[in-house]
Specification:
Strand content: 15-25%
Distance between the termini: 77 Å
Strand order of the largest sheet: 1-2-3-14-11-16-9-6
Pfam families: 2OG-FeII_Oxy_2 (PF13532)
Keywords: Dioxygenase, Iron, Metal-binding, Oxidoreductase
Cofactor: Fe(2+)
Organism: Kwoniella dejecticola CBS 10117
InterPro entries: Alkb (IPR004574), AlkB-like (IPR027450), AlkB-like_sf (IPR037151), Oxoglu/Fe-dep_dioxygenase_dom (IPR005123)
């Protein structure tokens, strides 16, 4: 007889949590939220469970919960709920006892959910969410900002307009439009990103980053990808890069140009506004280990100059990682969520420490700073069925908004912004080693 008791494992606590929420083995059941109920954070859920998309989608259904006994395992897998309407269960009260509520200067409430990490529920009002959704897929995807699909496809500069008006327009892969010498083989085919432990940029320094990137000439297009319609390409797009260009292959920023691609001013204003609204002294004066992180000046000199817009489709995940590529490792990272809800696992500087699952809903803002920037974090699950009602199509929507809502119907968008250089950092002149007249 097969035993289903817990067995010894070589996985870290963070990896075990990832595997739990990523599990799709049973089509009619979601990963149990109650298993992590004591640690689960969900600060922006509606007061009434009947108004909660997460509850209505069945995420709190008792059918998701297995009690661990061998005698009930087969009944749970094969019998529970067959031919019946799903029992949605009761949404439990979640404890906030291990978190600290803080008042922001703009009147909003924030919560310290981990050292240096502040979650601001419902930060973005509905109209701002819709504006940011449109900007994310219509403006932030325009040249010269690189896209995840830019390596392998000749992406039209009016990608969103085509998606809105001509979604069946065909986009050719680069191997059909470029010479064969510029195209790579199977090793260059698109593949999932893997977590790689990299040295912090703040440790190796600017000069070493420049030296390591001198020989990097960019990823070669694959000759294996096929033509796509604009609608298909949009569904395959996973990120857009804002400001300083991040090189996924080298895990560092490209400093070969004098200036970064201009960072969207409206987005910068949102990020600076939320950083200014936090009374940082209330946070760090109580944490002696974080007193030297430079928080005293953030309200005045925080200036986001790079960012990634992540486009998740239902079924996508983001492996646990630590962002180490900024030269100032403590400055705030501002993260904004749009569309479907997601589970964020927020851990510590060690994968062996159990992470806290956080439900990030549309409109939430998470700030990671100081020690929080060294915490492992990842997104193991986009929560199916949790799209807020204001993203549903409406008769009064114009063509662009209809297209944006069509995109988000199966997606989640996360915008995260950071500051690469500490204030006052002076970049040395860039020397072109191929120039015979350079001194």
């Amino acid at each position: 007889m097969v035993s289903h008791d817990a067995k010894p494992t070589q996985h870290t606590a963070f990896r075990l949590a990832e595997k739990h929420f990523k599990n799709r083995a049973l089509k009619d059941k979601y990963p149990s939220l109650r298993k992590y109920q004591d640690k689960l954070i969900d600060l922006s859920r509606p007061d009434q469970q009947e108004d909660d998309p997460l509850w209505k989608a069945g995420w709190w259904s008792p059918w998701n919960d297995y009690d661990g006994s061998n005698s009930s395992w087969k009944a749970w897998v094969f019998g529970k709920g067959k031919g019946k309407e799903r029992d949605l269960g009761e949404r439990p009260i979640l404890s906030t006892s291990e978190m600290t509520e803080i008042q922001l200067s703009d009147g909003k409430a924030g919560w310290i959910v981990a050292p240096g990490c502040i979650l601001i529920p419902n930060f973005l009002p509905i109209d701002k969410q819709l504006d940011l959704l449109h900007a994310s897929i219509a403006e932030y995807t325009q040249p010269p900002s690189p896209l995840s699909v830019s390596t392998h496809y000749t992406v039209p500069p009016n990608l969103f307009q085509l998606y809105s008006e001509h979604p069946d327009h065909v986009v050719q892969p680069k191997h059909l439009t470029l010479g064969s010498k510029q195209v790579g083989g199977p090793e260059n085919a698109p593949r999932p990103r893997k977590t790689v432990e990299t040295e912090p940029a703040s440790v190796i320094g600017y000069d070493e980053i420049i030296a390591r990137n001198k020989t990097w000439a960019g990823d070669a297009p694959s000759d294996k990808v096929k033509e796509r319609t604009v609608a298909q390409l949009m569904a395959e797009m996973r990120w857009a890069n804002l400001g300083w260009v991040y090189q996924w292959s080298t895990k560092s920023y490209d400093f070969s140009s004098d200036k970064p691609i201009p960072f969207p001013p409206d987005l910068a204003d949102i990020c600076k506004q939320v950083v200014r609204s936090v009374r940082w002294s209330e946070i760090f004066l109580k944490e002696p280990d974080s007193r030297s992180c430079g928080w005293e000046s953030w309200a005045e000199d925080y200036e986001p100059d790079t960012g990634i817009v992540n486009f998740y489709q239902i079924g996508d995940t983001l492996m646990g990682h630590v962002d180490r590529s900024e030269l100032d490792p403590a400055r705030p990272l501002v993260s904004l969520s749009l569309g479907h809800s997601a589970i964020l696992l927020l851990g510590s500087a060690s994968r062996h420490d159990p992470p806290r699952p956080i439900v990030l809903r549309s409109g939430d803002c998470l700030i990671m700073s100081a020690a929080g920037r060294q915490a492992y974090h990842g997104v193991p699950r986009i929560l199916e069925g949790t799209l807020p009602a204001h993203f549903e199509p409406a008769d009064e929507d114009n063509m662009d908004l209809k297209a944006a809502k069509r995109f988000i119907a199966t997606a989640r968008v996360n915008i995260n912004a950071r500051q690469v250089f500490p204030p006052g950092f002076k970049r040395p002149p860039i020397v072109d080693s191929t120039c015979s007249t350079c001194i």
